[in-house]
């Protein structure tokens, strides 16, 4: 992977960036994504934010190597603090972290989202945390994708301002992913169900306290509900 050819995961993120957006890529690592977006003519201006010195230096090097220093600003900053008002950022990408961490980044510096019309978020795990954040902060999930690359499954969530309540099942599975129900979605949740069955077996070995009994019932209900979606 490089600034000319992204991984399938990052290429999917890139596909959701609006034409002519000003994008801030938070946790940019090598800045491959913003460099690709500029090279492809999707955006003319971008910010690459990194909180760790090593990746920040890698991003600086990549931007210089691609001769994009005029178009891409690299900043060493904590999360959305990499965004300054004069940047005019309209889209934010955050990829390759856990869902709860992405949600905490969005919460930590909410003023960084002023003027932002789209969030493209790719959690490695626990996408539910992002959906819960969206509902709590008046963002809607306007699109979703689920892909498999190198044996790992990733979800990509696209958020825009607006209000739309989600059921517990939609928070867990994703409304649009549930409706599409592609092969990767089925694979992911078939694997999750198998893991839940393992947890249930372990619970059977524990003392059957009221708390354990309640957890078992909750898990059984979840398994039954998700199996109903996959059927």
TrEMBL record:
Keywords: Methyltransferase, Transferase. InterPro entries: SAM-dependent_MTases_sf, TrmK. GO terms for biological process: methylation. It holds the Pfam family TrmK. GO terms for molecular function: tRNA (adenine(22)-N1)-methyltransferase activity. It comes from the Bacteria. The keyword tRNA processing does not apply. This is SAM-dependent methyltransferase. It comes from Candidatus Kurthia intestinigallinarum.
């Amino acid at each position: 992977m490089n600034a000319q050819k992204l991984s399938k995961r990052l290429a999917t993120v890139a596909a959701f960036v609006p034409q002519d957006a000003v994008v801030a890529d938070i946790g940019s690592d090598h800045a491959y994504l913003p460099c690709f977006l500029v090279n492809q003519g999707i955006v003319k201006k971008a910010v690459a934010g990194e909180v760790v010195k090593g990746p920040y230096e890698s991003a600086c090097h990549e931007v210089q190597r691609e001769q994009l220093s005029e178009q891409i600003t690299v900043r060493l900053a904590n999360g959305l603090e990499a965004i300054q008002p004069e940047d005019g950022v309209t889209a934010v990408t955050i990829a390759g972290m856990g869902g709860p961490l992405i949600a905490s980044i969005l919460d930590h510096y909410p003023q960084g989202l002023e003027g932002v019309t789209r969030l493209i978020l790719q959690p490695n795990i626990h996408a539910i945390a992002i959906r819960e954040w969206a509902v709590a902060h008046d963002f809607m999930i306007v699109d979703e994708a689920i892909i498999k690359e190198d044996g790992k499954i990733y979800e990509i969530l696209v958020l825009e301002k607006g209000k739309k309540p989600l059921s517990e099942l939609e928070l867990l599975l994703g409304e649009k992913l549930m409706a599409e129900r592609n092969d990767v979605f089925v694979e992911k949740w078939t694997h999750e169900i198998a893991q839940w069955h393992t947890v249930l077996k372990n619970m059977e070995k524990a003392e059957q306290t009221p708390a354990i009994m309640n957890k078992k019932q909750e898990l059984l209900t979840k398994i039954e509900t998700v199996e109903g979606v996959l059927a």
